[in-house]
Amino acid sequence: MDKQLVTGSEALIRSLLKEGVDTIFGYPGGAIMPVYDCLYDHKHELNHVLVRHEQGAAHAAQGYARVSGKVGVCIVTSGPGATNTITGIGDAMLDSTPMVVIAGQVGAALLGTDAFQEIDLVSLTQPITKWSYQIRHADDIPWAVARAFYIARSGRPGPVVLDFAKNAQLAKVEYEPQTINFIRSYQPYLDIDEEAVCAAAQLINFAKKPLALVGQGVELGDAQKELLEFLEKADIPAGKTLLGLSALPTAHPLNKGMLGMHGNLGPNVKTNECDVLIAIGMRFDDRVTGDLHTYAKQAKVIHFDIDPAEINKNVKTTVAVVGNCKETLAAVTAHLKENKHTEWIESFKESEETEYNSVIQGELNPVEGPITMGEVVNRISVATNHEAVLVTDVGQNQMMAARYFQFTKNRSIVTSGGLGTMGFGLPASIGASFGAPDRTICLFCGDGGIQMNIQELGTIMESGATVKIILLNNSYLGMVRQWQELFFHERYSSTPMKNPDYMKIASAYGIKSRAVHLREELGEAIQEMLNAEGSFLLEVGVIEKGMVYPMTPAGATVTNMLLGY
Amino acid sequence: MNKKLYTINVYSENVAGVLNQVTTIFTRRQLNIETLSVSASSIQGIHKYTITVYTDAATIEKVTKQIEKRIDVMQAHYYTDDQIIFQEVALYKVPAVSLLGSNKVEKLVRKHNARILEVNQTYAVIELTGHPDDTQALYDELMPMGLWQFVRSGRIAITKSPVERLSNFLALIESRKGKNGAE
Ligand SMILES: Cc1ncc(C[n+]2csc(CCOP(=O)(O)OP(=O)(O)O)c2C)c(N)n1
């Protein structure tokens, strides 16, 4: 085949196209201008979404990746452009989101001289990426891009940074496409260990009270079908992590709800009663385990994970099944006996009733007083036939959405779990709308979080992204206020917040909107939002001092959940 | 927690920035690296690190896995002192007069099995290879005679096990390469 002489920027674009990239989120600047110049020529095949802040680019790429299962891509300039993406990179690292960030860099001759907009991005991002690499020569480009995508999407996915020196963008290179699916120092996942598989199956076959903990690893491994077969064959009830919520349909009889600090009572209480605890693609985050010294001490623990470094990191396992859970789950299922754990599963009912009576009933069906967050979430979930993609920001809105939104489809939750990044929701929802253009995208956010990246309304205006934004306005930084109420003697230090007129803001950006304060209007307003073409901002004035219950205080035992006042 | 000295061996690709990635893993966990020695190994393109650190068994296991997780790191293993043979090198500079005036220094050199690397009219340089206790003992004896400079290297170590883990790993990797198509 004839080799063609092209610029480094052109080589980059061709390499991206070769990786199947169709959408890029980004923001131009001096050190990345040659790439932007090239993008101009490739408009027809590469959709560039101009964000309003590079943090937005990173979160949008995350949202895109999470719903589509593809690698999210953003392109930014050097220096401040690059540093603005760091929150998103860290967020993607903690939540195992495949992402490639391409940042401009000063010319190689200027490196190390504190040149204009020079920042040592590789050093800055090494601890929060799977791989971070500086491209100094144009010849490197096809190799570096192929390697970046291979690393980002294989094994346990994660973010990769390519720091792209300007001279390499301009230099001419013979472009030759490259494919990488092997790196000798990197094993995306290990081969199945038959012994571990048999040991796990043995433990499960003899378990009287098994409990599964389902995490995002199931969706990342595309193993929802394998999960169902596993759970159904051995009749195992399952709790889900925040990021694993859509890995198992909410209505499935074996679904016992969400784990963790604001999760459901049942799976939390039962964690300390089960005899075999089966963690699947989850990493025992402290928001799930609470106090490790009292966590599931009675249980034998089986841990399915793709990342060997997760084994025994927080919870000591009895059997570790390392590998891609699509394969390992199937392998273990093959050794499982058909089983029934009727009595054990029935025993969840007590907690479910307690939680329903003391928390859920009041939250979802209040008869008077201000609107609650829970009822808004529930009504929107119902109105979308539980088929929408849920995107959340961080705070009470996030926990309420996670608790009361229902899931019927895979890859339906986009939220910042590990880093808990306020300002994540709005840009992530824009990204999600590009990653799943045929689905309804519902963003729940607080009045604090929306303002952290509110400029991305401009991206909606320009790109025509369709996002149904539900702003749950309680005039407080609600989640912090909740902690102040419970643990700081109601000293509301810097949490009451004066809000702007969101209707005016929406209208300034050409986005349809409506504000609701009365319960009677809520249903109709939701319909108006869902029927509207394009994006819509629905501001709901909710109870100012609402609380998310149940709650396990930080570091407390998972069974000691607070149920309310 | 039961702390003791662990030795970690790391094999990595010879690319810029790996050392940084390895050391930050210790920093994050507030672990102080006692010694660190890095150089090319006998295998083309592969660098070998020997790191020592005081910590407990649970932590060393986690740290080693996190090191191994870095893309450019091939393998990382940890050992206790009874599983390895290890050495450090120390260099001592003493004023020439302390050699000329008496045979004390010469006796010390013999006693400790050290070597004189260089002597001139101003100073002599002595080298000793051994465990930290050995190099420290000579240090303690030379000190009263006037010691101008002293330096000790990080530990290097080799396992007592007959199995060469890296070779096995490389063989496995090569076989995979066949399966997946080449890089
Ligand atoms: C970037 C960032 N800054 C601060 C926090 C700490 N924080 C967590 S929740 C929260 C309050 C969120 O308030 P709001 O967005 O109004 O949502 P609500 O809790 O009221 O639903 C804050 C400040 C955070 N998670 N992220």
Indicate the topology.
The complex is a heterodimer of chains A (565) and B (183).
Chain A: E1 4-7, H1 8-18, E2 23-26, H2 33-41, E3 47-50, H3 54-68, E4 72-76, H4 80-83, H5 86-94, E5 99-105, H6 121-125, E6 131-135, H7 141-153, E7 159-165, H8 166-170, E8 172-175, H9 194-206, E9 210-214, H10 217-220, H11 224-234, E10 238-240, E11 255-258, H12 265-271, E12 276-280, H13 286-289, E13 300-305, E14 319-322, H14 325-334, H15 342-346, H16 348-364, H17 373-383, E15 389-392, H18 396-404, E16 413-414, H19 425-435, E17 441-446, H20 447-452, H21 457-463, E18 468-473, H22 478-487, H23 502-508, E19 512-516, H24 519-531, E20 536-541
Helix pairs in contact in A: 1-2, 1-7, 3-5, 3-19, 9-14, 11-14, 12-16, 17-18, 17-24
Chain B: E1 4-13, H1 18-28, E2 33-40, E3 46-55, H2 57-69, E4 73-79, E5 84-95, H3 96-100, H4 104-111, E6 115-119, E7 123-130, H5 132-142, E8 149-152, E9 156-159, H6 165-180
Antiparallel strand pairs in B: 1-3, 1-4, 2-3, 5-7, 5-8, 5-9, 6-7
The structure holds thiamine diphosphate (TPP).
Thiamine diphosphate is lined by residues 393-397, 420-423, 446-449, 472, 474, 476-480 of chain A.
Give short descriptive properties of this protein.
heterodimer, A: 565 residues, alpha/beta, 6-stranded parallel sheet, 38% helix, globular, B: 183 residues, alpha+beta, 5-stranded antiparallel sheet, 4-stranded antiparallel sheet, 9 strands, binds thiamine diphosphate, Acetolactate synthase small subunit (chain B), transferase (chain B), branched-chain amino acid biosynthesis (chain B)
